[in-house]
Write a structure and sequence with these properties.
D-Maltodextrin-Binding Protein, domain 2; 10-stranded mixed beta sheet; two-stranded antiparallel sheet; alpha/beta
């Protein structure tokens, strides 16, 4: 999604116009320290253990790769505290002092302090090439009328589908699921590839990743013309007391942005520049 997050990035993104589960309920910080409590020798990450393409316990998500990159620049090993991206995620990880950074959270998330964003992305339309939708660039395209379109319930594109008269034929997928068992983005991509639905709308990182993990591969169209906010800036989340740590992460992001972009691009994440346009690969 985060956003997420998820959110996390895509769930957090879902809840900020959407809200990327990625951080669902109002939680309060479980401490009131005035000093920083970041481990100075280990890059300690708070993560979901089953949330591809963002993170997993095998270290195969792009957030795992970005964490490993930044840790290497600090000459530190990484360690993980895994917890599902559900209510209680922040309380049981970051605020419990078990880890020091959430690798993906939407800028503006009120549950954490966020760094400078390290990428900006948008929701995207996915469809099977050759099914009559080639060339569609917006949900306002008349070729989508009457089509069976997948949508993750509660995300920003839902209101756009309703505005454009597409929600009546839409197929909803749940935002909050047990990711040990199922994945709404993966199911949606499978349904598009199999022809069970005509198209789907997913958070960009999910769209780019799962479109390449089905047969046939799906077309991914970043939604940049909807007249409603579909894009979000994604940062890292830290405790509100950890000001020096935030500054250090900001420096690492700035110094390593090209390498971070390469990691994201390798997972199919559609990246936007500061003007909201697609970055050249």
């Amino acid at each position: 999604m985060r956003f997420a997050r998820k959110f996390r990035s895509w769930h957090a993104a879902a809840a900020l116009g959407l809200l990327i589960a990625h951080h669902a309920a109002a939680e309060t910080q479980g401490y009131s320290a005035s000093v920083e409590l970041v481990d100075p020798k280990v890059f300690r990450v708070c993560a979901d253990p089953h949330d591809m393409p963002l993170s997993d316990q095998k270290g195969e998500g792009f957030e795992n790769k970005v964490a490993a990159l930044l840790a290497s620049k600090l000459n530190e090993p990484t360690s993980y505290t895994y917890f599902p991206q559900v209510i209680g995620f922040v309380r049981n990880t970051l605020n419990a002092l078990r880890c020091d950074v959430i690798m993906g959270t939407a800028v503006g998330d009120q549950m954490v302090q966020t760094t400078n964003p390290y990428y900006r992305t948008t929701y995207a339309l996915i469809f099977k090439p050759g099914n009559g939708l080639d060339g569609v660039q917006s949900l306002e395209d008349p070729r989508l009328k009457g089509k069976h379109i997948g949508i993750v319930a509660g995300t920003p594109p839902s209101s756009v589908l309703a505005r454009d008269g597409l929600i009546g034929d839409a197929k909803p997928y749940p935002l909050m699921v047990d990711t040990r068992v199922t994945s709404s983005p993966e199911r949606m991509a499978d349904d598009v590839a199999a022809g069970r639905i005509d198209a789907g709308v997913l958070w960009g990182p999910m769209a780019g990743y799962y479109a390449q993990h089905v047969t046939p591969h799906l077309t991914v169209v970043p939604l940049l013309k909807e007249g409603a906010q579909m894009d979000f800036r994604i940062a890292m989340g830290v405790r509100r007391t950890d000001q020096a740590w935030k500054r250090k992460l900001n420096r690492l992001i700035a110094e390593n942005q090209p390498e971070i972009d390469k990691i994201l691009e390798s997972y199919g994440v559609p990246l936007l520049d500061e003007q909201g346009q697609l970055k050249a690969p």
